[in-house]
Specification:
Layout (H helix, E strand, L loop, with lengths): L1 E2 L6 H6 L17 H6 L5 E2 L13 H8 L4 E2 L10 H10 L4 E2 L5 E2 L17 H10 L6 E3 L8 E7 L5 E11 L19 E11 L7 E7 L7 E6 L4 E5 L36 E2 L7
Antiparallel strand pairs: 1-13, 2-3, 4-5, 6-8, 7-8, 8-9, 9-10, 10-11, 11-12
Length: about 280
């Protein structure tokens, strides 16, 4: 499956002043084609043959494979958003534009840019917006809409170590709604892109820690981010610079959620190609 890959330099994200700079690095496929041709569903990748995927996975995962992590190649599946989302894309996408600061204009619902010309100088920004407004549901609990909202997530560090996080996550998208009433926006919430409530349950030293995040559609308005600390029994408001600071004792930060959760207009993007990758996914 051919995907568009997003990679950003965290040192720029965390240390830059003013408009933060990052690039969607989309590498050409020349080096990876030999490995791609050899891989097939049913193949097992592990420390004995990690070279087969060295151009198709990230550095952290590759390090983990070398240390003993194994997985089996599964047949690719085609992602199909619901009919309502497809219809909303057809109806509203023709009017969508980018503003002078890279902000999204006239977006009501659906995929903002279903057709992107790679030669378009704004192609990178459009890819970023497509990723941001990909179909995730109007409201959902946890990853994939689990009944309880509980997620178990594993993060692989640079040294190959694996860390586990358990938490309960609840997402609400007040606008761009296509399946749940009210549509396409909840009255009074027209200026909010998303609301997330997250409650940590593991590891034990962070259990009960709760974050509430509001993402605003105004490109000049930063997120509202609140943290409840059980040991203090207090709620603290965090600055948005906390988004790119690591959450001890890991390398994970809030902008790493869902591959990339930063505010789109805080960055610059450049489309330089495309590449096949392997996605490490447990179902």
């Amino acid at each position: 499956m051919r995907l568009t890959i997003a990679a950003y330099n965290r040192s720029i994200v965390c240390l830059g002043n003013g408009a933060l700079a990052a690039f969607l690095s989309l590498f050409l496929v020349a080096q990876a084609r030999a490995a791609e041709a050899e891989l097939k569903p049913g193949d097992t990748i592990g420390p004995h043959n990690w070279e087969r995927v060295k151009e198709m996975v990230g550095e952290n995962l590759l390090s983990r494979i070398k240390q003993g992590y194994t997985f089996k190649i599964k047949a690719p599946t085609r992602y199909q958003p619901p009919r309502e989302y497809v219809e909303a894309t057809k109806k509203h996408a023709p009017a969508v534009r980018l503003g002078p600061d890279g902000e999204l204009l006239n977006h009501v619902a659906g995929l903002p840019f279903p057709q992107i010309d790679p030669r378009d100088p704004q192609a990178g920004q459009k890819v970023a917006w497509n990723f941001y407004w990909r179909w995730q549901g109007d409201d959902f609990k946890g990853g994939g809409g689990t009944e309880t909202g509980k997620m178990i997530r594993y993060a692989i560090e640079k040294d190959g170590s694996e860390r586990r996080y358990d938490f309960y996550s609840y997402f609400l998208f007040p606008r761009t709604r296509v399946t749940l009433e009210p549509k396409p926006v909840i009255p009074g919430f027209e200026n909010i892109d998303s609301i997330q409530l997250r409650v940590d349950s593991y590891p034990r030293d962070s259990a009960g820690s709760t974050t509430l995040e509001l993402r605003y559609s105004d490109p000049k308005r930063p997120d509202d981010l609140y943290l409840y600390i059980p040991s203090l029994r207090r709620i603290r408001r965090l600055t948005t610079t906390q988004r790119c600071k690591t959450l001890a004792p890991s390398e994970f930060n809030l902008d790493d959620i869902d591959f990339f959760r930063g505010k789109i207009t805080d960055f610059n993007y450049k489309l330089v190609g495309e590449k096949k990758v392997l996605t490490n996914y447990a179902q």
